[in-house]
Amino acid sequence: MRVSKWLRPNALGAYLLMLSFGYSAVRYARVSLSTRAERSDTGGLRVIRVLHWQLEPGYREGLQSAIDRYNRLPHVREAGVEVRQIAVPEQVYAQFINVHLISGTAPDICVAGMSQLLGATAANARYFEPISGFVREPNPYNAPEFLPPDLPQDLKEYLRDAAWNQTFTDGMLGGWDELLQDYYAVPVSSWGTARTFYNRDLLLKVKAWMRPRLDEPWARELIEEARMVQDDSAFRGWADSDAAPDTLGRFIVFAEAARQFAAQTPGFERFSPISASNYGITTMVDRYVTPFTYRLADRLDINRDALTHSTEILGGWQAGLWDMNEPVLRDGFFDVVRWLARYYPTGFLGLDREQSTRRFINGQAIFLTTGGWDAGTLFANAEGRFEVGVMEAPMPAPGERWFEHYAGRASEADQRLGVPMSIYRRSPNKEWALDFLRFLTSFSVNQEMNAVAGWIPSIVGARPVETMRPFAPNLEGLHPSVRIQLGWMPTVGTLYNGLFPLFQSGDISYDEFAGRLEEGYGHPRTGVDRVWEDAMVRSQDQARQLERALGVLHLRIQQGGDVEDLQRQAQILLESNLRDLDGFGPHWMRERLRGE
Hints:
The protein is of the alpha/beta class. It is 49% helix and 8% strand.
């Protein structure tokens, strides 16, 4: 029986392609028509759309409270303007915004991130409006009539007179593009730093169970053989108290006690001391990268800019300045990683963020490390069930197993503000979008919005709600950018990120992990040499981008630019010379690492 040519597999594929194209075309037409007809569909209102993916409990409500306040302002109502938010799940946010940016139908305000078209230098220049000309002016919504009457007078005067960018706790660095030397986003919130949450009710139960059992074999093995802690009066005093583990050694001893407790107590069959997933483990182990790799990274900071670049790290490996057998790696950081993984749930690499959170809320784990963005969810769901405690990641103390490799706690002073909102370059409502962002980041509105959201305000002097205070950055400690972060390496980072979970889960030994990693570094096509080549190409591309920015600034100055344009021109010129079109920067770094 002969099959009609119209029903052959190739023809069916063509039909499906045509059907998909037709559906996309109809969908695009409908979106375009709805956008154009928006004013008539809303009774003549000029609608300002705000797109974001912050679906954490409270954030949409907090943003809506600010939107409602703005929409009620007399001058906004008189102009027929209305702001609306569009919340899209983070799983599809990148695809959603990419399509709309390319098609020219993007919302007036978009939260940067999740996509290479959001927040990347080239995309900023193409799709979003630079706002440096506005950030140096005072925010009109910080005028005295908008500020609380009980605010200290000196803070009132500062907010009234300071440039808009200087009213942000990070100087608006969360919206700064270093290569373009321009502001392209307005950060409106901070989710705070990562912290370890704990179930205080379970902690007290395990502490009570542990106290009389510190002389049992499981405890003696940790204390005497693994040298986790010194069995002295300080350790015994902590064990007799109701305090959470305050050092890394005590944390491991307590985690083992929790595992022993669960094994001997009915109803804890699915229990694990630490709730972890393929999402949360990165947050947890990242707290230990700088403390254990700082001394090694400091040796590799060739240009002394307090930032250990991937070229410095990998060039140092290629030059024989370090390898995976470094004690701070083998016996420090990676040993900590492996010990922590003992207390994760079985199959943790197959669990997602929601499953990890649910395990903690259901009392099937004592600890969960995540950022302040999850605080509202955890506090709300635990209310009436158990008390939630918050602590910083425990670090080694003198006399404990890892203290000789520990350089010190990492500072959180480089914390950038989040939820950076950018104005779409093709928006017909750019002036109103800018006005709304000023309103949103005024002292009173930003404080109230983030109080409802349960996040940290981005404005100087604004106070977070009580539950968010533990998430404020700790400014003391080592420079956080001096570190050996192998997973962030270009090209070879993919290899590391594939092997690291296998090492954590115990599927491969450290020797196999280190050997396969260094073998990959030496690969002639995909190894360190490829990283150097890519770095030189990237340096050239960035230098060209800077030259384009210089050309625009030069034209602006010729047309009567101001002092700020001259200052930016000098900054970009310096940056361009440092990068050099022929890739001299990476080349010089490589030769220095080789000692030539």
